[in-house]
Amino acid sequence: MKHSFWLIVLLFVVCAFIMSDVAEVMAEAGIPQTLRQQMLKQPSFTAWLVRWQASNPGLTLDAFQCIEAPQLSNFPVAEEGTLGVKEKEKMYSPDRAHYLYFPDPGGEPDQEVWLYNRKGDRTLERLGCIGSSSWYDGGFWLDNEHFIILSGFQNIREECWVMVEYWDFLNDQRFLYQAVLKCRAIQFSSE
After folding, report:
1. Do 12 and 102 share a domain, yes or no?
2. pLDDT for residue 184 is more than 90
3. What is the pTM of this model?
4. Which of 19, 58, 118, 170 could pair covalently with 145 via S-S, beta carbons 3.0-4.6 A apart?
5. CA distance 34 to 14
6. Are 113 and 100 in contact (CB under 8 A)?
7. 5: enclosing H helix or E strand
8. d(CA 42, CA 151)
9. Same domain, yes or no: 100 and 47
């Protein structure tokens, strides 16, 4: 009986150690090869990457590291008709059962992104809202349950991050990959 207690304690310690190693590997992992291949087939992604490579020679997909991989939770919800979404603003999934919506900020510095019908309940969920030092560059669908959102952030020290958010709403997961770049700081006019 005494040995089985210590065996259980040892098993618990080993499991905890393995789980912490898995979390560290996930945090340090880059974009998986299969996802890279899917993204590179998308003209909007390759154009986005080429645009950033023009000002950051040497930028490759190897520069992107996974910084966040939380489970999805409930997001703020709106009924479809309340946001005034126009048909031309909808970025549909291949089966047209879902769409992404990036509202025009209308002069405001904040931007949002919404997803329609994630749970099959015909509602819009706000996936993100970012402020004036950040931006959404758009997104695209990989299939009916997986999509990519492209975004970025710049601070006042001439650093910026470009980000690839991989969303798997079928399994309620989001993986955020970022690459740190040197950028020109935003120049504000005194006029």
Report:
1. no
2. no
3. 0.76
4. 170
5. 31
6. yes
7. helix 2-28
8. 16
9. yes
